[in-house]
Amino acid sequence: MMQTRAGGSLEAPMGEPAAVFEALADPTRRALMQALSESGPATLAELSARLPVTRQAVTKHLALLREAGLVTPHGEVRGRRYELTPAPLADAVGWMMDVGAGWDERLARLKNLVESRRR
Amino acid sequence: MESRDRHAETIRHEETIRAPVDDVWTFLTDPGALSAWFGAEAWLELEPGGPVRFRFADGTERRGTVIDVERGRRLTWRWRELHGAGLSLVVGAPSTVTIELVPMRDETRVQISESPATPEELPAAREAKR
């Protein structure tokens, strides 16, 4: 989960969870995702009509969602439809849960070790 | 660039330990003690830019770099997971870990946070800005 085959490079691009969380941090992008989840795939024109922001703003936000893998474009530029692809969302949540469980265990061990040494 | 909400994506953990802060700090910085509570063979050079490496029993490694050290108070590193080797090497997404110690009378509060590394924090982006 949350892993890229990067041929061993440590200079891989931005981590996927970071891209997903950044995508979610903006209310317009959340509204876009909501709209796509309700209507199914939609074009730029349809999305701009449904949201109180300019077409340029929708274009910009769609690009960011696309970068995070949350939206996938289909078709040629003209009439291109955007589909919500929520899998990276589950990966990001999974990342948080994996990391969380690890630290709970480690902190419990740290507490036991430090306190038992002092007895 | 728009502002980034760092709260939603940061994992925080906290524990209060009945020991003075110096005792707890030793457990963060002594490789043997660090290995014991981490559950991994740990290796860490305690200075900014110093390497950090954890080797877990299942062969997985986490490697990275120390970002910041404030002795007895705070330690920050950035790391990522590596498993497999050669062409099948799989590299995880980078994240930043901060361990903070807060002295409280005869106890120490340990606060750990981990969040995905942002593009600006990654070495390639920093190089590009120079």
Care to describe what's here?
- The complex is a heterodimer of chains A (119) and B (130).
- Chain A is elongated.
- Chain A is 62% helix and 10% strand.
- Chain A is mainly alpha-helical and 119 residues long.
- Chain A has a 3-stranded antiparallel sheet with strand order 2-4-3.
- Chain A starts with a strand and ends with a helix.
- The N terminus of chain A is likely disordered.
- Chain A has a single domain, classed as Arc Repressor Mutant, subunit A.
- By secondary structure, chain B is α+β, with helices and mostly antiparallel strands.
- In chain B, strands 1, 2, 3, 4, 5, 6, 7 and 8 form an 8-stranded antiparallel sheet that branches.
- In chain B, helix 1 packs across helix 2.
- Chain B starts with 10 loop residues before the first strand and ends with a helix.
- At the A-B interface, strand 1, helix 1 and helix 5 of A face strand 1, helix 1, helix 2, strand 6 and strand 8 of B.
- Strand 1 of chain A pairs antiparallel with strand 6 of chain B.
What would you say about this model in short?
The complex is a heterodimer of chains A (119) and B (130). By secondary structure, chain A is mainly alpha-helical. In chain A, 62% of the residues lie in helices and 10% in strands.
Q: What is the terminal separation of chain A in angstroms? A: 41 Å
User: Which architecture name of chain A does CATH use?
Assistant: Orthogonal Bundle
Count of individual domains of chain B: 1
Helix content of chain B: 10-25%
The CATH topology annotation of chain B reads as Alpha-D-Glucose-1,6-Bisphosphate, Chain A, domain 4
Largest interface summary: A-B, 41 and 42 residues
The total of beta strands of chain B comes to 8
Task: Annotate the secondary structure layout.
The complex is a heterodimer of chains A (119) and B (130).
Chain A: E1 3-4, H1 16-24, H2 27-39, E2 42-43, H3 44-50, H4 55-67, E3 71-74, E4 81-84, H5 87-118
Antiparallel strand pairs in A: 2-4, 3-4
Helix pairs in contact in A: 1-5
Chain B: E1 11-17, H1 21-29, H2 31-38, E2 40-44, E3 51-56, E4 61-70, E5 74-83, E6 90-92, E7 95-104, E8 107-116, H3 123-129
Antiparallel strand pairs in B: 1-8, 2-3, 3-4, 4-5, 5-6, 5-7, 7-8
